[in-house]
Design goal:
The protein has 12 helices and no strands. The chain has helices spanning about 1-25, 25-30, 40-65, 70-75, 75-95, 95-100, 110-135, 140-155, 160-165, 185-210, 215-235, 235-245. α9 crosses α10. The longest helix has 27 residues, at about 110-135. The mean pLDDT is about 85.
Length: about 250
């Protein structure tokens, strides 16, 4: 049973890494293969930091049960990511309006999208930092620790998952792949990925434990609450004012 659980968490980390690799392939990992415009340096930093986190996640999951001492030593790197990922993520978000203007595009059609994504990213950044911090504090409780690390990663998968909607298989063209903002499909893909990944955690708990682990339950409520509340918050006048005050 323990081996089944370990395979599940390794499999989940590989799925998350695949989403990041595919989502950022046109703009970061495979730029030479796609006809995409140049990007500001902070976007490369954002992609590299995210890729670094998911590479660490896969490495850590593969070390469990084989190289536990190495796993524990590498685990302290998560503390740095708990700080770095929210910083680069929000910096990228705040630069989005200027990046759209720099392309010569009219900002008006993207206003609602920018406001919604701002709040999704802000809440996701706070959740990531909170989950990782809790995971470090509970590192001696493996069942809670690994769930918290997975929840932290699901919280920040949205930027990569959103870009999946721009691939031609979903009806878009190659020129859509590197646009600074696309359509509402970006948000739908991002939120859909979060929901499906949470469902996978719930199903695994029920299959292997016949009940939900408390961390899975609490994490699911927090993340699903974000899915429902962040877009609603973004529509309020005070939330819109805050977005444009800091952007």
């Amino acid at each position: 049973m323990q081996r089944t659980r370990s395979r599940f968490y390794l499999g989940m980390t590989l799925v998350l890494a695949a989403i990041v690799l595919t989502g950022f392939m046109p703009t970061l990992f495979g730029r030479a293969l796609f006809n995409v415009p140049k990007m500001p340096g902070h976007l490369y930093l954002h992609g590299i930091v995210l890729a670094g986190w998911f590479a660490l996640l896969v490495t850590q999951a593969s070390l469990v049960g084989r190289q536990l001492a190495v796993h524990r030593k590498l685990g302290w790197a998560a503390l740095g990511f708990a700080i770095l990922i929210p910083v680069v993520g929000m910096a990228t978000q705040l630069a989005m309006p200027d990046r759209i203007r720099s392309t010569g595009a009219d900002l008006a059609p993207f206003v609602d999208l920018i406001e919604t994504v701002f709040w999704l990213n802000l809440v996701a950044s706070l959740q990531f930092a909170g989950f990782v911090t809790a995971a470090i504090c509970l590192r001696k409780h493996s069942e809670s620790h690994k769930r918290l690390m997975l929840l932290a990663s699901i919280a920040i998968i949205q930027p990569a998952a959103a870009r999946l909607s721009r691939w031609p298989i979903f009806g878009n063209t190659a020129t859509d792949l590197a646009q600074p903002a696309s359509t509402g499909n970006d948000v739908k893909f991002a939120l859909g990925a979060v929901v499906l990944l949470i469902v996978a955690m719930v199903v695994n708990d029920l299959r292997t434990r016949q009940r939900l682990h408390r961390v899975t339950l609490i994490g699911a409520v927090i993340l699903m609450g974000t899915v429902m509340l962040a877009p609603a918050i973004a529509k309020s006048e005070w939330a819109k004012a805050l977005v444009w005050a800091v952007s």
